[in-house]
Amino acid sequence: MATLATAVQLAEPSAKAFDEAEVQKICSIATELDKIPSVALQKQEALIKEIKAAYEAELIAFLAAEQEEDANASTLYKAVAAASGACGAAAAQQLEGLQKVALLATVNAGKATGAINEFVDFLIAVSTGGSTGTCLAASNGSPSGSNAQSRLGCPAKTTDNLNPAEFQENSALKPSGYAQFSGGTAHQSGGSADTKCFLLKTNGASSATNVWQTNTVSPQPLMFGFLTVTSHNTAGTTAINKATLNALGTNWEKTNPQTAPEKLFNAIGHLIKAEYDGCGQTATDILNHVIGKGKAAQLITSVRKGAKLTDKTSKNDYGAAALVDDVAGDSKNQAEKIKNKIDSLPVTQVQVDKTAEKTIKTNSNPEDMRKSLLLRHIKNKEAFKNLGKQLQEEIVKKANTVTTKMTETDATCAQKGTGAECKDGCKVEGTGDNNIGLYFQRQIQENIPYRSRL
User: Which domain holds residue 412?
Assistant: First the structure.
């Protein structure tokens, strides 16, 4: 660049200079393009925030389901957890699709900004201090003295930080195209500026003193295609023109894009239009959404129907609405009421060397909730294990009792006599000389009168 700049400054000027005002318009486009990475970041961060919120909501609802003893409430909370997880999965899928869109938009915006920045800086460098000769001129035919500082409004060469920001429609970029580029010239004629720049001069043959080596060069795209330039050996025939880009299409879409600005426009448009109406940005938003929008109830209906757990009911929802009504207390403000019930459920918080009794609302740190959920799971498993053990012991005890009774008969009971040994299914009946030890259980079951058994 330095060699070319020296050549331009030393050579005899003989062609048109670039109009500062038109170059500023291109810089305004570059400035807006420089914001595209922030737009991409904002959309990605919103999805990441929703994924995190959905995970937290799922964790809260799972913990509530484990803590809740009421069957209907526990079922609903499990459904809320599953629906919250579905919200997170949908946001993750959206994020996956957004990655390519965001990268294409930011990569192409970066290429355009770089191409514009480089050439503007070059024009400023070769024109600074010029009057008789210059390639960048204001209406007086000379370059503005502040160009090196203002860089004609082009964005900074480097980016040190990036903050998320929503796209704001502006005078440079609109859904229909690049608003300020409706064709026309971009050279400056004032102050004889149309004969002051050496850049477009040629003599029609290869020459060490000219930039262009042929006199038949067609218009060449410059600054990412926002301008075209035409060289010639006659100053008046050289040309610096703006591309027509103000009416590319509608809603950020150019059909069959061909040029670099057109393809860039579509890439930016795909990013801007990548909107996602999800479940919310906080755990409370997610919980209210899946309850209020009926997503948890829909899951209950689906499971009850598929597993044939209940009848259709009059609403054809397999009792899901009635279940939600039962948990909420009525049909009004159900999301808020159910969320309040979840928040108030007691949980055991696991601390470093002890536990503390809290509510779900006061135990809302995800790490604490994970520990509480694991503790509850362990306790539930222990309770089920102990219950199973007790049940088995009762089964064995009953089996032993039945076996003892079934081994006795009238004959064996009679052999035991009427003393202390007459037990375990035997009973003394009769008085005086008529008393006898009998198999009591069978006699009672069959309702056989004593005299009939003698």
Answer: 408-453
